[in-house]
Amino acid sequence: MGKELFTESIRRHVGITDEEIDSVWSLGIERRVKKGQYIIHNGTVAKKTCFISSGTAVGYFIDTKGEEYLIQFGFDGWWISDISSFLKGTPALLNVQAIEDTLVYEFSSEAISEAFEKAPSFQSYFLAITQNAFASFQARTLNNLSMSAEERYVDFCNKYPQVSQKLSQKWIASYLGISPESLSRLKSKLLKS
Amino acid sequence: MGKELFTESIRRHVGITDEEIDSVWSLGIERRVKKGQYIIHNGTVAKKTCFISSGTAVGYFIDTKGEEYLIQFGFDGWWISDISSFLKGTPALLNVQAIEDTLVYEFSSEAISEAFEKAPSFQSYFLAITQNAFASFQARTLNNLSMSAEERYVDFCNKYPQVSQKLSQKWIASYLGISPESLSRLKSKLLKS
DNA sequence: AATTTGACTTGATCCATGTTAAGTTTAAAG
DNA sequence: CTTTAAACTTAACATGGATCAAGTCAAATT
Fold first, then answer.
1. How do residues B35-50 score in pLDDT, each as one tens digit?
2. Nearest-CA neighbor of B124 among A108, A88, A22, A122?
């Protein structure tokens, strides 16, 4: 069950009663997603935002040349969606895909609104995690502007030490904005020095 | 007075009564900032988030070499701060500076909390604008990863047509992640074609 | 065990953008 | 009005990282 993790994630940010947790939790729909399956498909409207109970998912963009760009990833206890699509009802730019067997709890925008009404502190929680997500994208933008590929890689490894195990080098390179070949060279250079 | 703009900005996202607007508005502190003055200084804690009533401000990072990187900018009706610092109470990474005479309304975190209590729909508004800010940083990350400098510049001009007048080329180049010289070259190339 | 497939490495070459530096235009300040 | 400084342009040269192409290695499939 993912409810403990869900509760813990909320209580890390706000005070909330067990009853409120129950009423919010009951609005989510459990879905088991096999490795390789899509959670959100680009071009369709993202009708759900997902709480990841276990597993790993990536959210990436594909350009006209078929090149893939990793925008976000998520593990146990993170939320994942295409937020622009979810909020505005526009077609998703991102594919969100499980890269291992993953258990998610899906919340529609109606479910989220209802949760906000039933448990106002859930809205405070939602604001807090959105602010965190905003801050981390801002930090990523800052890194992209001010750091070399090597510095970004070192920073990435420090920030997400567990990630190197779960994500392939292709995805990490894509997240950093470099080619897999460059990442490979860069790693061997770092090992030598 | 900036109250009309403030009201309009909120009502674009949520329903709110005049009384609620009044109670929120009264929590803000008016401050006139002259061109060149700082709104937030890097290294100090950002104690305020600011609603810009008129004028223009930039938020930028300075690296160890003294190089400046434009992270965000704001005009009439936008909010600006160093969000990470404001939320976590850590020293600000950004300088926020007026680049023309600017009128802002400052809200401390206590003021924001009080506003959320007095006017719950103000919290919904705050969530909505934070989600928008998140989405636009995500889009910027996507552009940085997938587009050439020239494509990013064209996209920037389309997205913020009024900006080229207000921001110097140095700031625009910095925002796009290229040198001012490259932007100059790129512009003359675009004019020819 | 043999084969296919995907992930990673390594080398050669190329190009977009950075860097340095000089010159020009514009705007601010005395 | 003059001076100074900042913003912008242009050119020559340097370089980080991309691209193209082979090759290695390990895991999955038959």
1. 999 999 999 999 999 9
2. A122
